[in-house]
Amino acid sequence: MNNSPTVLEIDTSAIKHNLRYFKSKIQGTTKLMVVIKAYAYGSDAIAIAKILENQQVDYIAVAYTYEGIALRKANIKLPILILHPQIENFELLIAHDLEPNLYSLRTLNHFIKISNSKYLNAYPIHLKINSGMNRLGFKEKDIENLTSTLQNTKHIKIISYYSHLASSESQNEIEFTNKQISLFTKITDALNTNLFIKPLKHILNTSGIINFPEAQFDMVRLGIGFYGFGNSKLETSRLKNVCNLKTKISQIQTLKKGEAAGYNRRFIADNQTDIGILPIGYADGINRNLSNGKGFVYINKFKVPIIGTICMDITMINLDGIKCKEGDEVIIFNHQDHILDMAKINNTISYQVLTSISQRVRREIV
Ligand SMILES: *Cc1c(COP(=O)(O)O)cnc(C)c1O
């Protein structure tokens, strides 16, 4: 069993808190899909899915077929939407009871062909509508083609239509977002009329739930909010941080004045200085941009600077004025603010800090 001191703790009570919060934001009849792509935003998709099975969640979503297969192999029974399946994996997807997003005539026709040849009975699929983000999906001009393609298919069944907002977090793009919402409504209403069907509709991600609750339709897709991040300081303060990254001091080195530490002697001691050596490096997800005083860790609430160049498996910290000993706990992050600080220094967003924590790091559910 892996007992490494470097661990990403996943806080179950924070998860439950965040779920309760978002459920309170939507109507009782609105279904909830939780997005657990990319190892549940860098945490542990299987562990999270097991928790979700007991939390009245209606759906889970992952990006690729193999992420869904891993969940099925772990005996997860919830319906699973595959957001970005590839035709090469359709057979496997069907074999594992996964529900594809079909986002183009190419993917739709290919899926229909397979479903016909296998005599599938109303196999659940989802249709992606491109309402303005121009990533995946069908456009308004495809309505006719979609109608004729879908008219006589008994082997598949459209469970939902969905679309994705490009700027749901932005107050400057409200007009554009509202246009996306109305175009989504228009296209899906036309399909309903043409095909005499009424699948679920959904368009909101986390920021959408916060900023455009009137567009919750039949379901919402909760991602980053589930892990503790809203789209403002205030919203984030109402959520709890789910992923806490910790390690322990492996060794303390005392440098004399003028001595250097690490590759290329990037840290040189001004005075006698104690430095801490941590068993975590850039291969674990600590971005090298945090080297040389840019990033911080936390020991007993004290902010401790990272010094020298972060190595593949080791990070060094300056223990000047910090009371600690070898084996003491070091927090890399255990609050949203720590993650947001890291993201800022790395010129990125919380999503990337979380999803960068590599699979080498042990996960623990607490
Ligand atoms: C990742 C993703 C989400 C979740 O987005 P958040 O901003 O993390 O809430 C929702 N829908 C789609 C299609 C996605 O790819």
The strand order across the widest sheet is: 8-7-6-5-4-3-2-9
Strand content: 15-25%
Helices, by number, come to 12
Total DSSP E strands: 19
Low-confidence stretches: none
**Roughly how many Å is the radius of gyration?**
24 Å
| Overall average residue pLDDT | 97
CATH superfamily of the largest domain, by name, is: Alanine racemase
What small molecules does this complex bind?
Answer: pyridoxal-5'-phosphate
- The shape is elongated
Computed structural class = alpha/beta
Write the CATH fold name of the largest domain.
Answer: TIM Barrel
Largest sheet: 8 strands, parallel
Q: What is the annotated CATH architecture of the largest domain?
A: Alpha-Beta Barrel
Overall CATH class of the largest domain = Alpha Beta
Summarize the model shown:
The chain has 366 residues and is an alpha/beta fold.
Characterization of this structure:
The chain is an alpha/beta fold. The protein folds into two domains: 12-229, Alpha-Beta Barrel (TIM Barrel), CATH 3.20.20.10; 243-365, Beta Barrel (Lyase, Ornithine Decarboxylase, Chain A, domain 1). Helices cover 31% and strands 23% of the residues. The chain contains twelve helices and 19 strands. The chain has an eight-stranded parallel β-sheet with strand order 8-7-6-5-4-3-2-9. Strands 11-14-17-16-15 form a five-stranded antiparallel β-sheet, with no helix packed on it. A four-stranded mixed β-sheet has the order 18-10-1-19. Helix 7 runs parallel beside helix 8 (174-195). The longest helix is centred in the middle third of the chain and has 22 residues, at 174-195. It binds pyridoxal-5'-phosphate.
